[in-house]
Specification:
131 residues; alpha+beta; 60s Ribosomal Protein L30, Chain: A; 4-stranded mixed sheet; two-stranded antiparallel ribbon; 6 strands; 27% strand
Length: 131
């Protein structure tokens, strides 16, 4: 599986360019963005998700490109998914994790936690695997 993500240090002047992450890129040691540049969690807003109903549109969402690319760079890590509490949040995170599994990320590499801090946001962090 390939995912298009932002890669640091490859663009002219901006410090970033869009590039497809492949095993060759990873072997060359190109760093993949695993979180927002200020160190905070990556955020998926409900408005973005409402438009995504196919694998192609899901992979076109910048935040999911970054999350998938970061996980592909280190498959020993986990994707922490913080979702809004309540029934709607549970439905949303279940649909999202189902899509991520269908795109090749094992459910064992995801951990879901209620409490993203907003009703319309899911937050992502790439974390060390809990042994």
């Amino acid at each position: 599986m390939y995912a298009e993500v932002e890669v640091q240090g490859t663009g002219q002047g901006t410090g970033k360019s869009s590039e497809v992450v492949t095993n060759s890129n990873l072997a060359q040691g190109k760093p993949v963005v695993a979180a927002a540049s200020d160190g905070t969690a990556l955020k998926l807003h409900a408005e973005q998700w409402e438009l995504a109903r196919s694998g192609e549109t899901i992979l076109s969402l910048p935040v999911l490109k970054q999350v998938i690319g970061a996980w592909l760079a280190d498959k020993e890590k986990m994707i922490e998914i913080q979702y809004p509490g309540g029934e709607d949040g549970e439905f949303w995170v279940q649909e999202l994790t189902d899509w991520l599994v269908s795109l090749g990320i094992p459910s064992d590499n995801m951990v879901t936690t209620p409490g993203s801090g907003a009703d319309d946001v899911i937050k992502f962090k790439i974390i060390k695997k809990i042994e």
